[in-house]
Amino acid sequence: MFLRTRSKTAMETDPQILIAIETLGGGGAERVALDLARAWPGDHARPVLLVGSRSGPYADRLPPDLEVIEIGLPSSPRKVIPFLWRLRQKLAGRHIAGILSHMTGMNRMMLRAAMLGIIRAPVVVVEHNDFLRNQQVAAMPRRRALLLTLETGFLYRRAAAVVGCSLGVAKQAASLFKLDPDLVHGIPNPVDERFSVSAPMSADTASWFDKLERPVFISVGRMVPQKGFDDLIRAFSAQERGSLIILGEGPLRTDLTSLIEEKCLKGRVHMPGFLPAPEQILQAADVYVSTSLWEGYPLVLIEAYSAGLPIVARLCDFGPEEILTPTRPGQLVRSGRVEDIAAAMTEVAATIPRMPPGSIPLKENQPSYVAARYRALF
């Protein structure tokens, strides 16, 4: 299903760059894919979004002129061949100038298609997270873990380029998959420019925010173990005053709610769910806090800086150490202990004021700059 239709003749002569992503879920990789589609240089090719499924919070935020191809994803190894057959049919008659694929599952499928001749264009793949932890390799049977790593390395060595969204992710990929260093690149994620422009709140949101006790700490992400929101709530419980907002949804909501009640924080901790315009809340808060146990390149930290917030972040693999540089406001908590996170929250809230949106330099994250770096790989 396409958002717009074109004649076969137009598709044959119109060079296209396929930006491939599994879903339109509310994660950072999905935001990056959409931002790159919006900012893709016009001198190269027309961006087309290739998605496994159009489901997800970003389905209603697609640019109106962006063509979308929904391809479906194989639910088991037995369905890989039907997937590749559908892909061949969907791409028939198109002039594909290149594939920019995001996340391990889609990356592997696009490279399989290239090996079989279904795709006859350079394929650039992007890793967005710590591969070992995100794929839960340590929990796999040894043989399965070895096969996954070997097969992924075999496929990635046939890519035109392998991109890590941080230098840490790029170095891990190069080492783990035994890649030629010239094949691997570290390119940071772009930040949506709306975070750097003052975003007035709706009347209802402003009224709700006015009732919150200051300082207002905020964190954003899926409610999953990776994000460490349980440690965040424990660290916040040590704050004598203030409010905490956690934006997002996920399977741990019930557990986090129970922890809030256990710590007697009901009324001080708020979890309003997934919001389509988080820039309004970020710009109205005082301190952003990240307690993730691992990351790739946490895009929300760049969004927080773009909105003018100081940051407290726990050191993890990968990303925060590359983002919280000495010239940017905030603290990187290297010990990772809850009591040290709590102390950093108290200190940053008391000593570092928030800044106007767009006042913290983030040149390397500007969408046009990032898109140009990806364009150069083709």
Secondary-structure blueprint of this entry?
Blueprint: H1 8-13, E1 15-21, H2 28-39, E2 46-51, E3 67-70, H3 80-91, E4 95-102, H4 104-115, E5 123-127, H5 131-134, H6 142-156, E6 161-164, H7 167-176, E7 184-186, H8 203-210, E8 216-220, H9 229-236, E9 243-247, H10 253-262, E10 269-273, H11 278-284, E11 287-290, H12 299-306, E12 311-314, H13 320-323, E13 330-333, H14 338-351, H15 367-376
Parallel strand pairs: 1-2, 1-4, 2-3, 4-5, 5-6, 6-7, 8-9, 8-11, 9-10, 11-12, 12-13
Quick take:
By secondary structure, the chain is of the alpha/beta class. The chain has helices at 8-13, 28-39, 80-91, 104-115, 131-134, 142-156, 167-176, 203-210, 229-236, 253-262, 278-284, 299-306, 320-323, 338-351, 367-376, and strands spanning 15-21, 46-51, 67-70, 95-102, 123-127, 161-164, 184-186, 216-220, 243-247, 269-273, 287-290, 311-314, 330-333.
| Low confidence ranges | 1-10
Profile the largest sheet: 7 strands, parallel
Number of domains: 2
In percent, how helical is the residue content? 25-40%
Mean pLDDT: 93
What is the N-to-C order of secondary-structure elements (H for helix, E for strand)?
Answer: HEHEEHEHEHHEHEHEHEHEHEHEHEHH
How would the global form be characterised? globular
- CATH fold-level label of the largest domain: Rossmann fold
Indicate the CATH architecture of the largest domain: 3-Layer(aba) Sandwich
- Relevant CATH superfamily of the largest domain: Glycogen Phosphorylase B
What's the tally of helices? 15
Instruction: Classify the secondary structure makeup into a structural class.
Output: alpha/beta
Report, as a whole number of angstroms, the end-to-end distance: 27 Å
